[in-house]
Amino acid sequence: MSEEKHRAREEAIVRDVMTNGMNVDRRNLFVSAAAFGVTAAAVPALAQQPAPATAPAAAPAAPAAPARKAILKDDSRVLNIGATVRSGNYWNYSTYMTPVEEFYVRNHYPTPLVEQKPELARENWRLKIHGASVERPIEIGYEDLVKMPSRTIIATMECHGNGRTLFWEQGGFTGKEVAGGNWVLGAIGQAEWRYVPMAEIFARVGVKPNAKTVLFWSGVDGNDMGRPMPFADVLAQQNDLGICYAMNGNPLGPDHGSPVRAVVPGWGGTASIKWLTEIRVTDKRVWCRLNTKGEVYIGPDYQAPESAAEDEFIGVTAADIKGPMVTWMPPKSLITVPLVIEKSPSLPANYPLQKGEVPKLAAGKQTMRGYAWAPQHGVKHVEFRIDGGSWEMATLVPPNLGKYTWVRFEFPWDAKAGQHVIETRTTDNKGTTQPEQIPLNSLGMANWSIPKFRIEVA
Amino acid sequence: MLKTFTLTAAVATFATATVAAESSQVAEGKSLFVTYCSTCHGADGQRGEGFQTPIWGPGSQIRKFGHAQGLFEYLQVMMPFDDPSKIDDQARWKVLAYMLERHKAIAAGGTLDPAQAAMVPIE
Asked: Do A67 and B74 touch (CB under 8 A)?
């Protein structure tokens, strides 16, 4: 997007927000795609899908409105993947920090609201920190938390399933082999998180030498949203992860875990349990839905961990353990071009391209822009390749603030008429580079293969 | 790495149950399920392109909702996942009746009374 177009878009958003209280101009979805020649009059993708066998129009009564929206976020600035899932419109990304309105959301249950769950009101909220490995269990309120020593960290947050689309579009797998939401590449954003580090919590409650697991538990978000983390991993990151109450300088919004959530920078989003009410430090290993069958690598190249009789099981059994849970998110990169959706089992309702449609770009000198991240070790460099040619270095655009942040990059391209494929790959500071393919995992977790962006130059 | 898990092993095989007299509520729920739910969950509710875990029977997670009313309220906000307003509550009860009959939470040939849904446990 050119500077002028970007400014025009920003002004349009401000105008809408000032006059309507929110941005309701759905056309801004198409601004970036318009740069590739997709007109604002493009028919929304959903209208292109065949009608179901039994058309809703044949139903005797008009469909009743659902009890409430599962997510509060305004769909004009995010991609609607499903009831509780919104991806970021990454082809529109231009800023270093992601506005909360454009930040992806992946909830397993409808966003819990204070109206239904009074315990989420700041004045009612309590966090219990206890367990067999805690010396001095405590229970604190919101005001207690915000008075504790806190830190801020700028870090990406990414859903485990981000990039699942690549399994279908370029990995050779079908919906029968890989199931889940069609995120495309936008289930990532970057925010400044304010949090009380776990180091502060551990110092206050005291941890016994036998500690094995730290369980972050919501208790409000359904009845099974919790993430057991090995104590050693929490300890290794104890200043960088913690109990978060602000995002980009504002209190957390309802979709993002208000009033308090965990933030585990660099690990897949599910580690950062929202609507947090309990932290339990225990001398046992703990198994629950997420680390048995919910957010795990299942496939021929992955081996399920073994449990022991003395382990603790919450709502699951040993037989439910299907694979190892995702932890660190791997190195990834993208350019701000909407990926062609052709082979995926579904097309997001408000995707700017129709099924199989290739984004168009005007011929001539272009600056291609993108983002790369590698939260375990940080981004070292980014390369790009056009039409299968040789890999060339992209220019990193400052800032590059450390391993938890992403970095923007750009490269010039003299676009000639015809069909083209642009690929990008990043290498982290340990020397790990994005691969061509990753092995099958049937939940479609953490696909970090080199993305292939098809572009038609007119 | 060791190859200890094969996808085919996860595909449950179902004996053809002899359901003598399916209630019309369940029969209509089955038809609605095929139209609105089977893409993601599979025609047999065991696995589809959107969701890999069974939604009824062994290995399913629906018992966490406690009773039919709890699951209904979840479905109201969440399903069909692409647009919960695609079906109305009347249709949703039928789909739920079908699911619960398959899960054996209601008897074969039985029906689900919305007014009594909180009294129908899901185990």
From this structure: no
Amino acid letter, A211: A
Q: Is B3 on the interface with A (CB under 8 A)?
A: yes
What pLDDT shows up at residue A68? 75
Worst-scoring range by mean pLDDT, A176-190, A288-302, B16-30, B72-86? B16-30
pLDDT in tens, A82-133: 999 999 999 999 999 999 999 999 999 999 999 989 999 999 999 999 999 9
Q: Are the beta carbons of B53 and A293 separated by less than 8 Å?
A: yes
Q: Are A377 and A430 in contact (CB under 8 A)?
A: yes
Burial class (CB within 10 angstroms; exposed 0-12, middle 13-18, buried 19+) of A389: exposed
Q: Is the pLDDT of residue A396 over 50?
A: yes
Dist. CA A413–CA B45, nearest whole Å: 49
B24 three-class SS: helix
* Count of C-beta atoms within a 10 Å radius of residue A352: 24
Q: Is A135 exposed, middle or buried (0-12, 13-18, 19+ CB in 10 A)?
A: exposed
Distance of alpha carbon A372 from alpha carbon A162, whole angstroms: 14
Supply angle C-alpha B88, B92, B95, rounded to 5.
145
* Short-list A94, A239, A98, CA closest to A156: A98
pLDDT at A170: 97
Angle subtended by helix axes B89-102 and B68-78, to nearest 10: 130
Say which residues have a Cβ less than 8 Å from residue A152's Cβ, sequence separation at least 6.
A192, A193, A194, A195
| Cβ distance of B85 and A293 shorter than 8 Å | no
Query: Using CA atoms, how far apart are residues A101 and A88, in angstroms rounded to an integer?
Result: 9
Q: How far apart are CA B20 and CA B95, in angstroms?
A: 19
Q: Which residues of A53-80 are buried (b: 16+ CB within 10 A; e: fewer)?
A: eeebeeeeeebeebeebbbebeebbbbb
Q: Which chain B residues contact residue A53 at CB under 8 A?
A: 34-35
Interface check for B68 against chain A (CB to CB < 8 A): the answer is no
From chain B, the residues in CB contact with A63 under 8 A are: 85-88
pTM for the structure as a whole: 0.85
